[in-house]
Amino acid sequence: MRSFELPARPHVERRLDELVDENRFTIAVVFPAVGAITLLGSAEGVLPEPLSFNPYFLLFGVAVMRLPLIAGIAPLLTKRAAAGLLVLCGYTYAIEFTGVLTGYPYGHFEYGVDLGPMLAGHVPAALPLFFLPLVVNAYLLCLLLLGSLARRAAVRIPIVVAAVVGMDLVLDPAAVAVGFWAYDAGGLYYQVPWTNYAGWVLSATVSVVVLDRAFDWNGLLARVESCRFMLDDLVSFVILWGVVNAYFGNWLPALLAVGYGYGLWRTDRFDFPER
After folding, report:
1. Domain interval for residue 133
2. Cβ within 8 Å of residue 56, ≥6 positions away
3. Which of 8, 86, 180, 253 has the most CB within a 10 Å radius?
4. What DSSP element (H or E) covers 150?
């Protein structure tokens, strides 16, 4: 009787690379475009009930858009890196539960839409899938843009932290506009309070420092330079949240999304193969 053997890790990584590379345009452009349309249709009440803010449809779309980043990171996932990601997952849940239950550090808010299964009815079970890619994408983009300056942690870390907070300046106004969550007291920045961004400075700093310690930044830089699709998840971010912000007239967040798109253009990432 033949024993069952799991495929070797290099084989799985190679097949995942091929899968993503062969479907780059669909993953990085079609999925976020469809996502933007369905989110806006849900927010405007024009989608039928089974589809409107369907949490599993939403979760599936997010998971597909994350595939380029997952495939890109996979060869670098050492025990140390995996441990670092587990620490960040735990931190993500802890800080979000604290925020929902106490209002610290983001300000008092509550979810208006279930983003997949919810833990204790308060926090999305897939929360790390939403948050951690923002940190990793910002880190990778900054490595490419900083060049030789990236060698200095005193430069690298604060710039990546600023890039992460900047991504939330794009994300939060759009999420509030479609009803994902709402802040009890509102806020001057598109109904988002300044305390939210103070909280993001804290969370971004913790996350970037842990990520920087868990991974070899030289290895990350080498991988993102050679792996053309590794930042496609950031392409999806720009398209999805840029469109949503523009639709609701959130022009500053929309312009910030364009700014991240410009950063991607500077790294020469828009080279989807013709199929």
Report:
1. 9-266
2. 116
3. 253
4. none
**Distances, alpha carbon 181 to alpha carbons 41, 107, 122, 129, in Å:** 17, 12, 11, 17
Measuring CA to CA, which residue among 28, 15, 25 is closest to residue 232? 28
Is 171 within the bounds of a domain?
yes
CB count, 10 Å around CB of 236? 27
Amino acid present at 137: N
Provide the number of structural domains found in the chain. Answer: 1
Question: Could you give the CA distance from residue 122 to residue 102 in angstroms, rounded to a whole number?
Answer: 12
Residue 2 forms part of a structural domain: no
Burial 167-193 (b: 16+ CB within 10 A, else e): bbbbbbbbbbbbebbebeeebebbebb
- Spatial CA neighbour of 138 closest among 32, 237, 255, 268: 237
Q: Alpha-carbon distance 268 to 255, whole Å?
A: 20
Does residue 85 register a pLDDT over 90? yes
Overall size of the chain counted in residues: 275
Residue 82: closest CA among 216, 220, 265, 215 = 215
Tokens 């833990």, residue?
119
Does any domain span residue 142? yes
What count of other Cβ atoms lies within 10 Å of the Cβ of residue 43? 19
Give me the pLDDT at residue 245, please: 98
CB 124 within 8 A of CB 115: yes
Whether this prediction's pTM lies above 0.90 is answered by yes
Q: Mean of the pLDDT values across residues 124-145?
A: 96
Q: What SS3 class is residue 112?
A: coil
Assess if residue 273 is contained within a domain: no
